[in-house]
Amino acid sequence: KELGRYKILLTSGPPHSVHLVGLRLAAKFDLKWVADFRDQFTLNPNFRSLMPFQGSVCRGFEQKIYDRADKIITNTRRNRRDVLREFDVRDYHKFVTINNGFDEAEMRTSEAKLPWDGAVQKRFNYVYLGGLRGYHIDRYFFDGFEKALQNDLQLVDEIGIRLIGDARHLTPKIKHLVDAGIVTIHKPVDSGDVGNVLAHCDGGLSWQ
Question: Tell me, what's the pLDDT at 144?
Answer without folding.
Answer: 81
